Each structure stands twice: as C-alpha cells, then as structure tokens.
C-alpha cells in the first residue's frame, strides 16, 4: 500500500515573526531593527492573518519551506511542477533503475472489477522494463513503458506566498484527489511551524470568500460572477 509521505525538512526560525516584521517595516514607522521587532512582537495574531487576507502576500516571501515528498505518482508530480514559483529536485528515470518501481492505485480502481487487470498490466510493464534494460536498452528509453502511476520522490522548496497560492488552488474540492492529498499534507506540516501564516488557509473559496471557477464551481460558495450580478 503506497501512501504519500510529506516531511517538512527545513524552514526558517520564527516564520510568523519574520512575516510580522516584514509587515511592520511596511506599516509601523519603526526606525531600527529593535523597534521593528518590538512592534512586530506586540501585534496580535489577527494582525498577520488580516494582512494576508487583504492580499499583501509579499510579506510572506521571506520564509522558504523545504519539503521531502515520496510515494507521489508521476501523474500528480506532473501537476505539482506546473507551479513555477518553486524549486524542485526530482528522482530521475534516466539514471535511477526502475526495475522495482512502486505504483499508486486510485481507490476507484481498488474498489472495482479492474483491480486485477490493473495489477497485471503493472506487472507486465515492470517485466518488459526489466527485459529491455537487461537487453541493453538505455534506462532513458526503457522508461517510456513506465506508467503514470509510478511513484517518485522530490524535494520541493516554496516560499510562503507561493505556498498560499498553491494551497488555495489545490485544496479545492474539484482538484484532482492526489494533488489535493499532497496539498493537505503540506499544509499540515506548514501549520505546525507557522500557525499564524497558514491558520486560515483552505481552498480559494474559503480563503477569498468566492469561487473563481464560474461554470465549473461545485456550488458551495458563490462565484465572482454571481456575487457581481447580485450587486446589480
Ligand atoms: C483546477 C486546475 C486545473 C488545471 N488544469 C490544467 C490543465 O488542464 N492543463 C495545464 O496545462 N495546466 C493546468 N493547471 C495548472 C495551471 O494552469 C497552473 O500552471 C498551475 O496551477 C500553477 O499555477 P500558477 O501559474 O498560478 O503558479 P506559478 O507557476 O507558480 O506562477 C505564479 C504566478 O506567477 C505569474 N506567472 C508565472 N509565469 C508566468 C508567465 N509565463 N507569464 C505571466 N505570468 C506568469 C502568474 O501570475 C502566476 O499566477 C490546472 C490547475 C488547476 C488548479
């Protein structure tokens, strides 16, 4: 049974305070480091969440979080790396032998009559991969037979602004289930070390109060179009 493993392996000290200090530099009128720090420390918890909710997200860019991720399918990692404001190191299928590759099985397939056939096809892919590599086909070519279900490992670094943008997109109930699972796990890790910054994080609609999806909306919260029409 493959499950996603997400571990926050590096983050700055006092992430919430760094963000509050960035905000204090913008708004407080303090003259030096001590004054800015004191001002930031004196602010209540809501200070940060209000600024974040107001969209002043650049104050979060001084905090960088490094995640180790494994057990994620190539299908989901392909979605993850579309987020360009981030740094990635991903396991190579050119250099790493995939003879014993692991694969994700979606629940819909696990609970269906296709499970046996699915597993058989995975085994076929694995066997053909092995035969090809043993027969002198370079790994970079043999890998073309590997399925999208193949698991991968990555190290991902994102600043807190990029993480907010990633979370609001990928925590949406209409997001694909595996990238959503990843986003949930990353949020849980981030909340442990930055409870104030990530306190109110959820899907776009939870965070911003409306749904940007318009005709693709799940209907739980009004779309921007609906809100604007109601105002007429
Ligand atoms: C529900 C959903 C469905 C999706 N479906 C598809 C799909 O079918 N096909 C597909 O290809 N992708 C799809 N994506 C991926 C999506 O298009 C984005 O590539 C991905 O979510 C990263 O978001 P981003 O561009 O905001 O973030 P980042 O890449 O981190 O960029 C952050 C911000 O920087 C700015 N930016 C970055 N690059 C540029 C640029 N070149 N020019 C101008 N501004 C830039 C933008 O303001 C952007 O919001 C989907 C994403 C979601 C959430």
Largest sheet data? 4 strands, antiparallel
From the 3D coordinates, which CATH architecture of the largest domain would you assign? 2-Layer Sandwich
CATH topology of the largest domain: Gyrase A, domain 2
Distance between the termini: 53 Å
Q: What strand line-up does the widest sheet have?
A: 1-2-4-3
Chain-averaged pLDDT: 93
Q: Which stretches are poorly predicted, pLDDT < 50 over at least 5 residues?
A: none
Listing every helix as H and every strand as E from the N terminus to the C terminus, the arrangement reads: EHHHEHEHHHEHHHH
Number of helical segments with 4 or more residues: 11
Amount of beta strand: 5-15%
The percent range for helix content is 40-55%
Q: Can you tell me the overall shape?
A: globular
Judged by helices, strands and strand pairing, the structural class is alpha+beta
Query: What is the CATH class designation of the largest domain?
Result: Alpha Beta
């Amino acid at each position: 049974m493959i499950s996603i493993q997400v571990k926050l392996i590096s983050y700055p000290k006092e992430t919430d305070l760094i963000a509050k200090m960035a905000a204090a530099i913008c708004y407080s009128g303090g003259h030096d480091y001590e004054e800015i720090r004191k001002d930031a420390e004196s602010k209540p918890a809501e200070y940060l969440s209000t600024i974040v909710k107001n969209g002043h997200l650049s104050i979060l860019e001084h905090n960088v979080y490094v995640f180790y991720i494994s057990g994620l399918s190539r299908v989901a990692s392909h979605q993850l790396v579309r987020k360009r404001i981030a740094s990635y190191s991903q396991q190579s299928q050119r250099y790493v032998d995939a003879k014993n590759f692991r694969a994700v099985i979606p629940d819909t397939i696990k609970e269906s009559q296709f499970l046996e056939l699915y597993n058989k096809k995975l085994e076929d892919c694995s066997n053909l991969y092995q035969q090809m590599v043993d027969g002198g086909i370079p790994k970079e070519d043999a890998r073309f037979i590997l399925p999208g279900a193949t698991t991968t490992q990555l190290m991902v670094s994102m600043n807190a602004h990029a993480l907010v943008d990633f979370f609001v997109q990928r925590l949406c109930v209409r997001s694909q289930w595996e990238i959503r699972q990843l986003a949930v796990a990353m949020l849980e890790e981030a909340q442990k070390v930055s409870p104030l910054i990530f306190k109110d994080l959820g899907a776009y609609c939870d965070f911003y109060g409306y749904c940007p999806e318009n005709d693709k909306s799940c209907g739980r919260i009004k779309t921007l179009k609906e809100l604007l029409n109601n105002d007429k």
